[in-house]
Amino acid sequence: MKTLYKIAFTLTLLFIVTIGFAQTNPKPNISGVILDETKKPADYVTVVLFKASDSSVVKTAFTDPSGIFTFNVSVKGSYYYKASNMGYKTLKSKTIFLTEDNQKVDFGTAQLVASTQNLKEVNVAVTKPLIERKMDKIVMNVSNSAVMTGSTALEVLQKAPGVSVDQNDKISMMGKQGVLIQLDGKQTYMSSADVANLLRNMQSSDIESIELITNPSSKYDASGNSGIINIKTKKNKNGGTNGSINGSLGYGKNLRGNAGLNLNHRTQKLNLFGNYNYGKFERDNLIAIDRISNGTPDIYFMQVGESKRKQYNNNLKAGLDYFIDKKNTIGLLVNGYFNHGTEASANNTLIGTSFQKADSSLITKSLQTNKYNNVSYNLNYKSVLDTAGSEISADVDYSKYKGNDGSDYENDYRFQNGNSIRPIIYTRNNTPSIIDIKAFKIDYNVSLNKTVKLEAGVKSSWVKTDNDLQAEVLVSNAWQNDVKRSNQFVYDENVNAAYTNINKQFKNTSVQIGLRVEQTNSKGNLITTNTVVERNYWDFFPTLFVQQTLSKNNQLGFSYSRRIDRPSYDALNPFIYYLDEFTYNKGNPFLNPQYTHNFELSYTLLQKYMLSIGYSKINDVIAEVILPDAANKSLYQTNANIATNISYNANLNVPVQLTKWWQTNNNLNVFYLSFEAPDLAGSALKTGKTSFQFKSQQTFTIMDGFTAEINGSYESPLDYGTLSLKARYYIDAGLSKSMFNKKASLKLALSDVFNMSENNLSSAYPGLTYSVHQKNETQIGKISFTYRFGKNEIKPARRRSTGTEAEQGRMKN
Q: Looking at domain 1-114, which CATH architecture does it have?
């Protein structure tokens, strides 16, 4: 209760301070009336007011049940409006003139004209470029891309500007790890491994667009030091009953494929929607590790391993939106997946006094099984409070995830002549896990006067993870508990937050100041050893955004934010997972959160050419490190707090229409990363390197409805923590053809055309020598077919449905 009182007090204080800057709302002085095609009042029509001098947007409003719209405008000048509603042609008004302050002007009555254009015509009209730059984010439009066909969401992310996904599925943006992944604006609340699993199971056919938000406002959770990636899924807004079926096949060394069904039924009061997708995924992976264990004498390890992963995925989503009236909407959403798979691996490690001379070997075979089930529920409500866009929304979320990982290992230690050094050791693990998530949030925004807007909200979440490692070893043909490795780890986390943003609009300048307050309570309990790590702390996260319009075609922006990254659940889990006896991974329950200061300066030319320059400093940065285990002559991977990480970056995005039939988008990201730790496992670490990423996408319109794409990427060598990564590059190509009066589309694609994508890395840690080569199955030919059926005509609508996806909540693994 004390926590809730503190949050309520903080939010109330922020409201009082904010409202102190505001003035009483003046009465509207500009008005007009919109009628539909039957000359009846048209309610909930979107009306946008523009300055006639430069066509800049002044305000947005909705018509009321009488068809009336109003604006508060005090600045002298000439103005016009555009009115739009689904199913009608856009209406442009005459120009009116304000010759004195707060002069009352009536636009009069205007009538909408119904549009009877069918779906195929609309599809042509709304085709978007692959990359769009908006004021606060970069948007990659996935749905129309041929290169994206048959890809998973994880593979699509790899093509996003400034985003990198390595062969271990680690996601970074602008060269930095710690990205927060959201689905339809909803936080996933999952570990990094589970996020990768979720994205690996999602198909590109389900994705509408991907939003890259490098410096979020106080409205968003403060986690994610390199920003937020929001994946927006498709949702049909057409009236009546309609849907689509889709399927894709891919083949490299293995066959993969998926099939899905989407259904939507919409009336004036109700929208029902759902989809189901089944996928089968197979992938080969090759890993080779050469390393030296320092000692007297040095020991040389040469390891080569191959694995084959098979995954079977069932994903579903169902929901409804009920439109209580034109201003109030309530929605229910259910997401779930039921997935299982296997991974068979064989590793052979040669051991000797040099890389050319081996005297023994360790042969390790393993079979891993996994089963992941997750269902999440979201109840949401949204109310539009006035025609100025004020609204309040609420979300209640619950999710439960159940997983079970099983592993069987066979370790065979032999002399170089093939004779056994010792009997084969058989071990097995069973790791059931449960993640339970509850959360609620309320968001409120209001126009305090004609130039001041307020956003505020509260949020609380409760997450509990329970991981039970049941390790056994085979002794005399009987399985016995391995007390050295068996363990149970329970982690509880509660985060309570309140935020407010105040936005002030001047003539050519927009300023937004925000503050988010978060209180965190966490407890990690290693039950077997009775080791408890408990933390309780408060944090304050200010944000500042300034937008300056120099002219119609030139805009400047500046932003600052302070952010936090709490350790992921898998990073805190102290269990040990073996690749073989000399190579393993373990968690670190003593990790502290990391804090980031982010600064960004941006310049936009002609609304499409964008240059941004950024600086960030992270204290207690959480980094993946590879360190030596001298006692066991082993190499292990874990996460550790490194003292400081400093980053400079510059990002340039240039779309060019070379000819009528050839369009290209080019993105260059240059960054400098440095890491410094005075004592990391007994040694000092200091690294720094300038690197860059270049991505280019070429789109060719061969004929109406027939396009081709080529997508290329190059990432230069990069140092990150204790890892020194070599250059990575690939080229993808694809074709897309619309069919059956644009109700269907056929897409062909080949990923990694020249089979060049691979991971090569070495040690940046002092005194540690190793090199790693990793090659996944990346050269894959794909074919995809989609057919849309049902009612395709977009009818005139009396209201524009705007709301049941804009809330944040959660999803699971």
A: Sandwich (2.60)
